Structures are given as C-alpha cells and as structure tokens.
Amino acid sequence: MFDRYEAGEQAILVHINFNQQQDDGDDRDEFAMLVDSAGVSNLAMVTGNRQSPHPKYFVGEGKAQEIADAVRRFEADIVIFNHALSPAQERNLERLFQCRVVDRIGLILDIFAQRARTHEGKLQVELAQLRHLSTRLIRGWTHLERQKGGIGLRGPGETQLETDRRLLRERIKAILRRLDRVAKQREQGRRARNRAEIPTISLVGYTNAGKSTLFNRITEAGVYAADQLFATLDPTLRRIEVADVGTSVLADTVGFIRHLPHDLVAAFKATLQETREATLLLHVIDASDERFRENIDAVNVVLEEIEANEIPTLLVMNKIDALEQGEPRVDYDDEGVARTVWVSALTGDGISLLFDALSQRLRQNMVHYQLRIPPAACGRVRSRLCQLDCIVREEFEPDGSLLLEVRLAEADWQRLVKREDAELNSFILSH
C-alpha cells in the first residue's frame, strides 16, 4: 500500500538527552536492545544534548547534517530515533537523509509485528500500526494530491490520499469489530472462571524481567522465553495447583516498557483485560537490573493506565542467581503478609517459597472450620464437602457423629450454607 524507501537492516541510531543533569546511559542501552530485538544491525549511535526538540528536524540542523553524513559514510538503510517524532519531522528527516526514518513507536510496533503469533495478536498489532500510520500517509507517496479516476474505489474528485485514508478507516473499523468479538469470548471465559471461584494470577512486569521463564518454571508450559525485549506478546493461560487454595489460573502477559505507545495500550485492551480482572498480580522484577526501581515505576504507570493499579500485588524479585549474595527469601510487612519473594526462575531457587506466598495471599479469601456433624446429617453433608475436595481431616466419634476439619473458599461455604440450610453453621466447633 505504501510506496516507501526500501527498508534495510543496517541502522544509524539517534538518542538525544533532554536532561542536562545526567547522561542517560541506561536508556541508550535499552534502546540498543530494542533495535537488536527487531533484528537490525547497529552501525553507529549518534547522541547529543538539547533543551527542547527542534520543530523541523527534532535535532538541531547541525546534528541532522551529522546524522546525514553518518548515513552516507556507513551506507545505512535506516535511521532509528529513540524518541517519538511528528509526521512532519519524519518527512523532513527522510528528505534530508534519503533513507527511511523510524521513531521509537514505529520500532516497538515493528517488534510486536514480528512477535505476534495468534490471530488476536496479529489483529491487535495491525490496529496499532494502522492508527500510527494514518497520520503519516502523506509521507509515503509522491503523487497523493492529484485526482485519479478509480473504478469502484474513488468518489468524484477524491484524491489518492483521501482514498487511502478512507480505506484505512474502513480497515480499522473492521479490525475493531473482530477484536470486539474476541473480547466477548474472553469475557465469557472469565465469567466461567468467576462462577467456579477459580482465582486468576497475572504475571506483569517490565519487559525481559523473566516472566515467561518463571511461567515455564511454575507450569512447565514450554512457552517461548528468550533474553530479549518483548519475547512474549500473546497471552498464555495455564492451570496450577496452590496449597490450601486449589486450582488457580496463571496468565503470562506482554511485558511493559517506558513510554509504551498509547496506540498499543488501546489495541491490546482485550489482552490486558486478563490483568485488569486478576485476583492477584505477580509483579516480576529483574533484581539484577540497576534500574529496577525505575522499571517498577514504569510498570505501575501502565497498570494505572489500564485501571489495574488497585489489584493486590505480590512482588517477585527474579534473577537472584545474577546477584553476588542472592538468597531466596520472603519479605513480610508489619502484619505478617508476604509482600516480596526473592527467586531465580532460571535455577528454580525460591519457587517453593513463592508457592507458599501465593497460598498465603490467596487463602485470605478462604475459611478453615472444625465441624461436628450429627449422625443424621453425616452422609449428606460429607458428600457435599467431598465434592468440594475441602476435607483436611475426619474422625468418627463413638456416638456416630463425624468430626471434620475443612478448608475452602468463603464463597463456596456460603453457597453450601444456602443449599444445606442455615443449620450447617450450627455444626461449627471452631474456626
């Protein structure tokens, strides 16, 4: 659809520091990792300092000429900026460099396009790409302003540019309709899990924090995991068993990143809904990253944007194998509630502690009762409790009464009380 410059794999990178107090080297390293994740070769990185973006070239005219010289010297095919550029700035830079220019948003969209595997993931990426490109249509053509007669496509007096914009709008509407159907299907699955009182645990965290490795360690699912940004794009759900809680659902989701494009957040609304509806969030953090606190803040910003910041969260400090004195442990708050678990998803150290913490956090909605069932009700009540698989211990007394120790979800107990009449509460000895 777009008559564009031939995209290559040899790139000049551009990073401008707008903070005069410090040189953001870690941000440059992350930028280089993004480029590497996209499969592009890094020929050189041009850096500089500015108080504010230049309206025409984003960088100053002298710096723009420096980049143009680097393009010719290294015979680069593409220039990638670690910043968001306006359509006009991209157009002006392409005209100066005589090669394709991509900003940070376009780079992330390209990585997502490579990673998408499921039908839903591909639709979401295409939606984000179309929304991003819709404001940049004019850049890709040299003949958009003249009117052309098109059989069955063009209205009277409609230019090529107007036709392309109309086709884009129609395609976006079609994708939104299909994603709406996917969202309804996901909602049905969530409602079914809610009816069955199955807790959902959602893995969230900065990209490359080790979420998929942890997911594989817990579930043995074998999902793709790699030491690269955005290795996971499509969400994966697996059942796990948690002590004193029972069956739960663990969801592996896309990683977050600083300055995550708003188009992506909007496009992946259906996927991120798994996070919004979770019972508990496992916030996975790369403990070996010196900027892990900034990464935590970046994830919290996205969680707030998708309205998931109020969900109970358990911090998981991962990659302790990369620390000099990394030992698995659990940190508790003043009330004795597990808040942080230190683990290594790669080696498996601390995973048992993680399950203990999950059990503690999830069973806060559980009840633990000692029951004494009279002989007349033993068979009926015991049968119901066996169906819920909640009997911890049982013992018959000489008079035929049954002593039971049960542990189950509070919602299950309330339903049982409603079904068996309120007399069930009279069987409680202690809790």
Written description of the protein model:
- The protein has 431 residues and is of the alpha/beta class.
- The protein has helices at residues 25-37, 61-74, 87-97, 104-115, 119-133, 160-195, 211-219, 262-267, 269-276, 292-305, 351-362, 378-387, 410-420; strands spanning 10-17, 41-49, 78-81, 100-102, 200-205, 236-242, 246-252, 280-286, 313-318, 329-332, 338-342, 366-373, 391-396, 402-409, 428-430.
- A 7-stranded mixed beta sheet has the order 6-7-5-8-9-11-10, sandwiched between helices. Strands 2-1-3-4 form a 4-stranded parallel beta sheet, with helices on both faces. Strands 13-14-12-15 form a 4-stranded antiparallel beta sheet.
- Helix 4 packs antiparallel against helix 5 (119-133) and helix 5 (119-133) runs antiparallel to helix 6.
- It is elongated.
- The termini are far apart.
